[in-house]
Specification:
Keywords: Membrane, Transmembrane, Transmembrane helix, Transport. It comes from Centaurea solstitialis. The chain contains 22 helices and no strands. The longest helix is centred in the N-terminal third of the chain and has 33 residues, at 8-40. It has helices at 2-5, 8-40, 45-55, 57-60, 62-71, 80-99, 106-137, 142-171, 173-178, 181-193, 206-225, 228-242, 248-255, 266-291, 296-310, 312-318, 321-324, 329-356, 364-392, 403-416, 435-441, 445-448. The relative contact order is 0.17. The chain is mostly helical.
């Protein structure tokens, strides 16, 4: 249906970026990098948690990538060159860390992994600009597009997680990281084949015009983020992520420890995450079929409540109460992972759909990148906050005595986030006001419209545009 309504190359971009890069690469990267730091460099979990936070810096910088794609065309193209650049960065970084062998120290390896994340972030921003534009023009299709993105991402994650443990066991984590050059190469391919209209103003005066557009884009972003309809739900999105600090590395070291934990094998760790990816697809389908028309505030309240309560399953697992109940470790962790992923996806989907509605026409790529960078900043705060808490409570490679307490505090903060749900508008997707409409009512629409109609070169629908 989406392929018939929208440009088929746009759908191809979603499959390659969200499925192969965002889904497969991110999941594969997550598992393999954990083993890389644990087995190759023998790093403590709190320090790895800090490194994971550094991976999020390229995602926090998404507004910069968005500005570049919206304002600075290359040879007349706004999107295609940036897919190519993202792919080249990813291929170079993955190849370096794989072929460097023992010569790659901790600092050099960290830079390579950050570069791999940067390639993913740049490709993600570029396709997100297209999604935001089409979501604005076709509000009825916004949940369908986000559902397609969610399914592609989860399906790619399913493949990435299910193969990561096996490949780490067979190839070792360092060589396995080199396989990420393949998804990065697909971004280069996408940059050459994807459809995009070429602008006609790529001349000697284009630099001055680009500077004017940059000023207009920055002004539009500044004025748009000041609308209460925009900054309030954005603040909730940040708080819901930042307050739920991450304890992932502590859990990873615990359930792979042969003495304190259940001593899961590399293959089993990958399969656990793969089952979680399947659960994420279920979560997308549940949202799409049952909850996409619900008011945002009500849906997020109950989703956040269940998210906080389901986190208590981690506490039960760490204290090994599941064995007291007669539930084997592998069965309990599958149930826990599935419940957590389903709830997390149902909780996340409405926030993304809401974010696409906040993007002004003309700077939709930049502004959506800004909103998603708020998400990334929340994740960064979550990772670094978790690193601090793990360090303070002395959770190390071999001492997991306080891990249950750290997890319990995390769950309490998840429940505390319910106190901020009033920031989210209590309307459904059809009644969310776009900033352009708000600005027009205040006679400021010109500030948000930074480019002319002919300059908007996102992957637009093949059908005729609506009458303006």
């Amino acid at each position: 249906m989406l392929s018939s309504e929208l440009n088929p190359s746009f759908i191809l971009g979603i499959f390659l970026v969200y499925g192969l890069s965002h889904g497969f690469s991110a999941s594969f990267f997550k598992v393999v990098s954990d083993y890389y730091w644990k087995d190759v460099h023998k790093v403590q979990p709190s320090k790895v948690q800090l490194f994971v936070g550094l991976y999020h810096i390229p995602w926090v910088m998404k507004p910069l990538w968005g500005l570049m794609t919206d304002v600075f065309p290359v040879m007349g193209y706004h999107r295609r060159p940036y897919f190519i650049v993202a792919g080249v960065v990813g291929v170079a970084a993955a190849t370096t860390v794989a072929e460097g062998g023992a010569r790659v120290g901790v600092a050099a390896a960290l830079w390579c992994l950050i570069a791999i994340a940067a390639g993913m972030a740049m490709a993600d921003v570029t396709i997100d600009a297209c999604i935001a534009r089409n979501s604005i023009e076709f509000k009825a299709l916004a949940p369908d597009m986000q559902s397609l993105c969610g399914v592609c991402s989860s399906a790619g994650a399913l493949v990435g997680y299910s193969t990561s443990g096996f490949l780490v066991h067979r190839l070792g984590p360092q060589v396995a990281l080199g396989l990420l050059a393949i998804p990065a190469a697909s971004q280069i391919f996408l940059g050459f084949v994807i459809y995009e209209n070429r602008t006609s103003n790529d001349s000697s005066g284009s630099k001055r015009q680009a500077i004017n557009k940059l000023g207009g884009a920055l002004k539009g972003m500044y004025e748009t983020i000041q609308f209460p309809q925009v900054w309030k739900p954005s603040l909730f999105m940040f708080l819901s992520l930042a307050l739920s600090f991450s304890t992932h590395e502590g859990h990873f070291y615990w359930y792979t420890d042969p003495k304190a934990g259940p001593a899961f094998s590399q293959e089993l760790v990958g399969m656990i995450h793969a089952i979680g990816a399947m659960a994420s697809i279920v979560g997308v389908l549940i949202y799409h079929k049952l909850f996409k028309d619900y008011p945002f505030r009500s849906l997020l309240f109950y989703a956040q409540l269940v998210y906080g309560l389901s986190g208590m399953l981690d506490v039960v697992f760490i204290l090994r109460w599941n064995l007291v109940l007669g539930i084997p470790d592998y069965l309990f962790v599958v149930v826990e992972e599935s419940v957590t992923r389903i709830v997390a996806r149902v909780r996340w989907m409405p926030m993304v759909v809401l974010s696409t509605s906040f993007c002004p026409i003309g700077i939709e790529g930049t502004f959506f990148a800004l909103l998603m960078s708020i998400d990334s900043l929340g994740s960064l705060s979550s990772k670094w906050g978790g690193a601090v808490v793990l360090h303070v409570f002395n959770v190390t490679r071999t001492d997991f005595t306080n891990l249950w307490l750290v997890t319990f505090i995390r769950n309490l903060l998840r429940l505390a986030t319910l106190g901020f749900v009033f920031l989210v508008p209590n309307v459904d997707r059809f009644h969310v006001s776009n900033p352009n409409d708000i600005a027009q009512s205040g006679c400021r629409s010109g500030d948000l419209e930074t480019t002319s109609e002919s300059d908007n070169v996102q992957l637009l629908p093949l059908k005729e545009r609506h009458e303006m």
